[in-house]
Design goal:
By secondary structure, the chain is of the alpha+beta class. Among the domains are: about 140 residues, no CATH class; about 90 residues, Threonyl-tRNA Synthetase, Chain A, domain 2 (2-Layer Sandwich). It is elongated and about 115 Å long.
Amino acid sequence: MPKTLRTTSKTSRNRSDHKRAAPGRSTTAAKKTPVRSTRTPARTPSRSRKSPQPSIRSAIGSISAERKLDILGILLALLGLVTTLSLLSTEQGTVMGWWVKFLSQAAGWGMFVLPLALLALGLWLVLRRMDQFPTLSAERLGGVVLLYLNILSWMHLLAGGGWELAKAGKGGGYLGGIFEWLFTGTTGKAGAVILLVAWLLVALILLFDLSLPDLARKLRTGWRNLRNREAREGARRSSAQPPLMPLNDDDSPHELPGDLKPLPEKSSRTARARIPAREPAAPAEPATLASAKDPSWQIPTVEQILDPPTPATAQTHLEQERARLIEETLAAFGAPARVVEIHRGPTVTQFGVEPDFIETRNGRTRVRVGKIASLQDDLKLALAASSIRIEAPVPGRNYVGIEVPNTEISRVALREVMESESFQRIRSPLRLALGKNVSGKPVSADLTAMPHLLIAGTTGSGKSVCVNSILSCLLLSNSPADLRLVLVDPKRVELTGYNGVPHLLAPVLVEPERVAGALQWMQREMDARYHKFSQEGTRNRDGD
């Protein structure tokens, strides 16, 4: 009995404890829930402490490639400037002293070239967008590195070579010593010289972006200009009077006009002897600049410059005979027609053929144009012509045009076209006389209506004649104050005769490497004019 009571009491105590513990569990569970909610945001600060690292990377990655090149150029220029100041200064810090010592052993005497190269490369990167600087590329950068290493190799080879020389900071340093040892050890000194010369040519080709013939031409031109400059300096020192040379003396061997060419040795002495000693001769001003500045310069008339046209020999009997052959041939092949008009041109004669009527089962009908065009070979055989052209029909006319080459080609005079009504009708200062068409009528055009003009044709077709006609029209219609020309003649024989014309902005360009600079200048001038047009709110110089 007592055991049962104790058991019951223990059971009741356990139940009461369990009941008392139930609220405790709910309280504990209720307390744990907000703890978990507070721990979850508590991890956010720990993650935010790691976030600056990817933000810096993303900021660096967001910088454009052009901006990175600008920063690299500034750093290289700064390093080159600081290195140059350290080499020139007697007081150096720890870091710069170590840097100078490293450069001395690595590059030897070339350590004075390296900071200048770094400074130039840095400025090149910063100012690469300017037109005066060549385009920076991997080839040019490789050419710079190869040229510097080649210079170090030459220094070490000429200094005698050896590792002791490099250790002492002389010659080309360890960099030059490596290549000098490699070349002389394999091919000897003579072979090393040949290899270094070939290496130098490769570096120059990469640096200046030239082919080997272009590089040879540049070196030859530079050597010739150097000799000419030395000859001129010697002539100035040996003579009491200054030579009569143009003010815009340029180093390229351009052909000067007759009145500006230097006199021969004997003639120049005779001319100087005539000049009084008290009145020294002043350098002659080029005709180009003098005429362009002269406000009283008058445009010459056409009668003063051009010769009158010679009348063409009339061959009416031959033209009438050809017209009869055309009519007979067409009638023989069932396509009767009549020649109603004849237009003789300088090279061909155009026969205007009007189709006639024929009788058919359906009545009286006109000959089809296609049938006349299909008889081209038969007409060529009947006329004994090398070639004929059929224009079926002629625009604006009611007949078919048959063009037959003339037996004699007549000359077209420029004055005849410039005095024609078609040329005088154009009021533009850039009007051009192009010649005569197949009908013998003068043809003129306005260059402002076609700013891009291409002249093409086979050899001997008259391209050079057309170019000279265009230039003559421009020179006879404009003064040097209104028109300035830039002429390019790579053949050296087509346009060099215009040297000395007051309308030229510079002598005729015959060197291909000088053409790029002239075109860049013209592009900048064109952009500046377009900018002025946009400011004025117009599309052209006439204000339209």
